[in-house]
Write a structure and sequence with these properties.
alpha/beta; binds iron/sulfur cluster; binds S-adenosyl-L-homocysteine; TIM Barrel; DNA polymerase, domain 1; 14 strands; 10-stranded mixed sheet
């Protein structure tokens, strides 16, 4: 028996093409696409407006298969983390971060990551493989479905009110809100993996996120975070210029290379040039730079001043991330007082600099803590090369 085609992994254009091979019209493809993504329906028999003959064809040739949830954890602050099964002992993690006015899903793009940033738990796990489109968009699809289910069980998927609004009557959250179609209103490609190193599946999946017949998110509501894969940034400009976040983490090449090996390939000046070019097509008029605060490593006032100088050439927003510890990382989080001092150097120079609120750290769901289950193939390779050499 030939393997069934997984329709979850199709953009609308690809779905239309595939339907044509069945002798079916484009509007049929659109109907099925909407059932899958807008209604979260995987069973062709439940797609009630399709002809019986088409349903039979679909049963024979196709399926809608999303990765399955292996485990689910809910943090005291409402953050939810799922571990998804992606086969042969591998698992990827996806995190939902509820806020008052939005629900952000942090999506993974690879099983592990090959880039080996020293402060990152995913990097420490090594790399197994790229995720396919269905596995990437499947995280969005399953999260929406599961959150709706949780809301029906009485677990809200929005914070009831803004944290700073103390004293204000809480507003109803969750399904009572009628201003949004689905729980996930924003996506950040900030889970496991380097999204630009898995370009085609990631951008195809983002195309589905933006499609009005699927999730209908605007380009401003989808953010891709990269450690600085310069050719990928340029390709993204052409293909699908969503909001861009760049993991900078150091204001000079020597320091950046020591904690992010990718800087040896694409040093800071090259990266800044690509960011400047990206601004011409970006949905926002600034680039977000992420900067993880590592005590005694990159967090001095001198570093902050260097950063001010570096960013003077480019409209930017800086997001300072408190380092989230894991295992024997060897790094320590900068304390809040020093973080605020660092921040004020930036704000005094006229930048918007925010300190990211740590969410979900009680369930290891915070930035850089996603480890999933990665059967590391890089290590195996090293051992093999070793043996062959011996
Ligand atoms: N590979 C991409 C996206 C995933 S990482 C990238 O590197 O941009 C998402 C963000 O979390 C990045 O800015 C990353 O540098 C940051 N991060 C990694 N490890 C961290 C840690 N231990 N604590 C806080 N942030 C971390
Ligand atoms: Fe990969 Fe990003 Fe982690 Fe670096 S910070 S190892 S690029 S996931």
């Amino acid at each position: 028996m030939t393997e069934k085609t997984n329709l979850l992994g199709f953009t609308l254009a690809a779905m239309t093409e595939w339907f044509a091979t069945l002798g079916e019209k484009p509007f049929r493809a659109k109907q099925v696409f909407r059932w899958i993504h807008q209604r979260g329906v995987a069973d062709f028999d439940a797609m009630t407006d399709l002809a019986k003959s088409l349903r039979a064809k679909l049963h024979e040739h196709a399926e809608v298969r999303a990765p399955e949830i292996l485990s689910e954890h809910r943090s005291a602050d409402g953050t939810v983390k799922w571990l998804f099964d992606v086969g042969v002992g591998n698992g990827i993690e996806t995190v939902f971060i509820p806020e008052y006015d939005r629900g952000t899903l942090c999506v993974s793009s690879q099983v592990g990551c090959a880039l080996d940033c020293k402060f990152c738990s995913t990097g420490r796990q090594g790399f197994n493989r790229d995720l396919g489109i269905a596995e990437i968009i499947g995280q969005v699809s399953v999260a929406n479905r599961r959150l709706e289910e949780m809301a029906r069980e009485g677990l809200a998927y929005r914070l009831a009110r803004k944290p700073e609004d103390d004293g204000v009557e809480p507003e109803p959250a969750g399904l009572d809100r009628t201003d949004e179609r689905r729980p996930v209103t924003n996506v950040v490609m900030m889970g496991m993996g380097e999204p630009l190193n898995n370009f085609v599946p990631v951008t195809d999946a983002m195309e589905i996120m933006l499609d009005d017949h699927a999730y209908g998110l605007s380009r401003r509501r989808v953010t891709l975070s990269t450690s600085g894969v310069v050719p990928g940034i340029r390709k993204l400009m052409e293909r699908l210029p969503v909001a861009l976040a760049v993991s900078l983490h150091a204001p000079n090449d020597e320091l950046r290379s020591s904690i992010m090996p990718i800087n040896n390939t694409y040093p800071i000046e090259t990266l800044m040039d690509a960011c400047r070019e990206y601004l011409a097509v970006a949905p926002r008029d600034f680039i977000t730079f992420e900067y993880v605060m590592l005590s005694g490593v990159n967090d001095s006032i001198a570093h902050a001043k260097q950063l001010v100088k570096l960013l003077s050439k480019i409209p930017s927003k800086v997001n300072l991330i408190p380092f989230n510890p894991f295992g024997d990382s060897g790094f320590v989080r900068t304390d809040m007082e020093a973080t605020r001092k660092f921040q004020s150097v930036l704000t005094d120079a006229g930048y918007i600099a925010t300190v990211r609120k740590t969410r979900g750290d009680d369930i290891d769901a915070a930035c850089g803590q996603l480890a999933g289950q990665v059967v590391n193939r890089m290590k195996k390779k090293t051992i093999k090369i070793h043996r062959e050499a011996a």
